[in-house]
Task: structure prediction
Amino acid sequence: MAVLVTGGAGYIGSHAVAALHERGEDIVIIDNLQQGHKEAVLGGKLYVGDLRDGDFLDTVFGENAIDAVIHFAANSLVGESMKDPGKYYHNNVYGTLCLLEKMNQYGVKRIVFSSTAATYGEPENIPIHEEDRTLPTNTYGETKLSMEKMMKWYDTAYDLKYVSLRYFNAAGAHASGRIGEDHNPETHLVPLVLQTALGQRSHISIFGDDYATEDGTCVRDYIHVSDLADAHVLAVERLRKGGDSAIYNLGNGTGFSVKQVIDIARQVTGREIPAVMETRRAGDPAVLVASSDRARQELGWNPSRNKLEDIIGSAWAWHQANPRGYNKD
Result:
C-alpha cells in the first residue's frame, strides 16, 4: 500500500517524501508545480496535476493502491490571502473537498493534514494548547480551519480518520543537502534573511516593532523541517494502527523574535545582514508559540534539531550550495 502526498514537491512536502522514502514506503506524489520543484522529489512516483481536476484524481487513485494521504497542497501566504481570499478558498478549501470526495469514493480512510497555528489567530494563552480558541486573523488561517472542520464532518459521516498537525515557521534543510527552501516569491523570514546574507537582497524588512513583545517584533516558534516531516510519518503510523482522529500542535515551545532570528543569522553566517523597519502587515499576531506536549506523548514525536543556530545553519549550508534554489541556470 502507498502513501499519497499532495504538495509533495513543495518545501515541507518534499522533506516528508524523503522521510517516507528513507523508511521504505511506497509513495505517490501529487503536485501542480505552482510552488513545487521536480528536483525536490527524492523518491516515489510524481503525478503533475491539480486536486480540483476530478479526472486527474481518478487516474492517481485508479493506478495506485493508496491506504493513507498526507495533505500539504495549499496556498500559504498570509499577505496574499488577505488581498485575494477567493484564491485561497478555491484552492485550499475546494481542493480539499475534491480530495476528500475521491478518498471516500476509493475507500481511503486515513489522512494527515498539514495545518497551521494560524488557526488560533491572536492566542489567549502562551504556549498555545490544542483546546484553545480558534479565531483566525487572516484568510489563510481561516481556510485551514475550514479544511479541518471539513475533515471532522467526513469522519462523522464516512469514518474517514484524520490527524491535523498545526505548526508554523518551518525552517532548515535536509541533512543530505539535496533539498531546501525555494519559494517564488519568497516570504519566509529565514530564507529572506539568508538571501540578504548572500547579497541577493539589499536588506531584510522587519514588519512592525510596536508589538507587545520584549523587543517589539513578532515572536514565532521555529521548527526544523525534518522534525516536521517525522511528525507526519508518525501520524500516518498512528492512523494505520487504528488511532482515532486528533489534532496536534508541533512546536519547540520556545519563541524567537524577528530581531533575534536576524541576530542569530548574523552569527551563523558571519555576514552583516542590514535590516530596515517597515509598517505592520495585516493579520500578523504578536506571539505564536505552541505546546507540543500532546504530540510528544501520543505520537512519540521527539524533535531532535531544535536549536535555532542549527536550524539556520542547515538552511545556510543549502542556500550557499544552491544560491539560485533549484534553478541551476
Q: What stands out?
A: The first strand starts at residue 2 and ends at 6. The mean pLDDT is 95. The CA atoms of residues 131 and 247 lie 9 Å apart.
